[in-house]
Specification:
alpha+beta, four-stranded antiparallel β-sheet
């Protein structure tokens, strides 16, 4: 599978394409280990999470993609957490939980 352009990745993640968002996504991609093995799975996860009001985004504090679990009930939050962990295991993608938050950084392909 050919990689998407940075503009396409931003659009898929519901961002407006601007010089600063392009620079940010470029830095995040460079910082994501083996991004070519992560890209399509990350975008598919983003689509899957939308029904839970959760999503994949660019972190504003670190050069990583982040997964935000913003499900509205504890039951749904647990379901999304399971979904994220199963996704990480299935596709061998290393994630790191942000302490005290329902957020995960995507570090890269294991």
């Amino acid at each position: 599978m050919a990689s998407l352009s940075n503009e396409a990745i931003l659009t898929q993640l519901d961002y407006t394409v601007t010089p600063s968002s392009l620079a940010q996504v470029e830095a995040v991609i460079a910082n994501t280990q083996n991004f070519d093995n992560v890209e399509k799975h990350l975008l598919a996860l983003h689509e899957r999470l939308k029904s839970y009001l959760s999503y994949v985004a660019l972190s504003s504090s670190k050069e990583y993609f982040k997964i935000k679990n913003e499900a509205k009930s504890e039951e749904l939050k647990a379901e999304v957490t399971d979904l994220i962990n199963q996704w990480s295991t299935k596709y061998k993608i290393e994630i790191e939980k942000v302490p005290g938050k329902d957020t995960y950084y995507v570090l890269g392909y294991k």
